[in-house]
Write a structure and sequence with these properties.
By secondary structure, this protein is α/β, with parallel strands linked by helices. The protein is 36% helix and 18% strand. α5 links the parallel β8 and β9.
């Protein structure tokens, strides 16, 4: 991980969810990055208590002006956070500083605010009722789309051990993904792992016939290999110790990455900017829900006048 000036990892906690897996991941990342852990549970805002005269001023209900929470919710939050802090200390001992926060507000907006100076944010995926699943998915997708730092989603049934010693990085338009490739190389080096670069495409419409024949598909794959070679050369010799594998294949990117995630410790995806604001695509949404390993979504740098630019973009994330 690139620490820059951020020195803490934010772990978002939810009611009724065993957070052991997300806390274990956070402790390992904090140890690698030599930073603190901040445990955050957002207490949902409620209406203010009625005044003694029974009259409520309109200003008291102004959105964004004040946030209120009932005492029971705040007490439950304190217990949740203290239990999680105890678990971090049990796993890490005194080697990692841990702090807690129970801000009041709407979940995604408040978590985004809490992540302004974070190195990383971690949220755990969990299975619930249909309504609960939709709500928790909106939190994961909303935070992954809008957080100023990378966001890692931890699968509910993920196990840290035994480690696969393998990191995946998904590259769409390889020539404009050098920064993402470097993140993957750093993550693999920090873990003593192999980096596997996955590049898949699923073209429909007017370009579909361009790679319909085996010969054209082979030319496309050779072009992708060439792009990856050039991207690795552009990164330089800093990661020469990292073994790099490749999977370049036609077909559904989400399916390919989901299969590969079964034998990986981390999957890294890029997030593109959008004229209406930052967002994540359908592949990232699918993998946040269905990948077998932790999924990290991070903003990608916008490159202009890229010397490695390819004639065709193979964007899928």
């Amino acid at each position: 991980m690139n620490t820059s000036d951020a020195r803490e990892i934010v772990v978002a906690l939810d009611d009724g969810v065993d957070a052991f897996r997300s806390l274990s991941f956070a402790v390992a990342e904090a140890a690698r990055s030599r930073c603190a852990i901040r445990l955050v549970h957002v207490v949902k805002a409620s209406l203010p208590p009625p005044p003694s005269d029974g009259l409520i001023e309109l200003s008291d209900l102004s959105v964004g002006t004040h946030h209120f929470a009932n005492v029971a919710d705040m007490t439950a939050a304190d217990v949740l956070l203290e239990d999680a802090a105890d678990e971090v200390r049990r796993i890490a001992g005194t080697a990692i500083d841990v702090t807690t926060a129970a801000p009041v507000g709407t979940t995604v907006h408040t978590l985004v605010d809490e992540c302004q100076t974070a190195l990383l944010a971690i949220v755990q995926h969990h299975h619930r009722s249909v309504l609960g699943t939709v709500f928790s998915r909106s939190i994961r997708v909303g935070l992954s789309s809008r957080a100023p730092c990378p966001v890692v989603t931890i699968p509910e049934d993920w196990k840290a051990a035994p480690a696969h010693q393998r990191v995946l990085v998904a590259l769409d338009d390889v020539s404009s993904s050098i920064d993402l490739l470097e993140v993957g190389l750093e993550a693999a080096r920090a873990r003593g792992a192999v980096l596997k670069v996955v590049h898949a495409w699923n073209i429909t419409g007017p370009y579909e016939e361009m790679i319909a024949s085996p010969t054209q598909a082979e030319e496309w794959m050779q072009s992708a290999h060439h792009d990856i070679d050039r991207a690795l050369a552009a990164v330089g010799d800093r990661y020469r110790s990292v073994t790099v594998e490749r999977l370049i294949t036609p077909g559904s990117p989400a399916d390919a990455l989901r299969r590969e995630s079964a034998t990986a410790d981390l999957l890294i995806l890029g997030r593109q900017g959008h004229k209406l604001g930052p967002t994540i695509g359908s592949v990232a949404r699918t993998l946040i829900k269905h990948a077998s390993c932790p999924v990290e979504v991070r903003a990608r740098k916008t490159l202009t006048n890229d010397p490695l630019a390819s004639p065709l973009s193979r964007s899928f994330v």
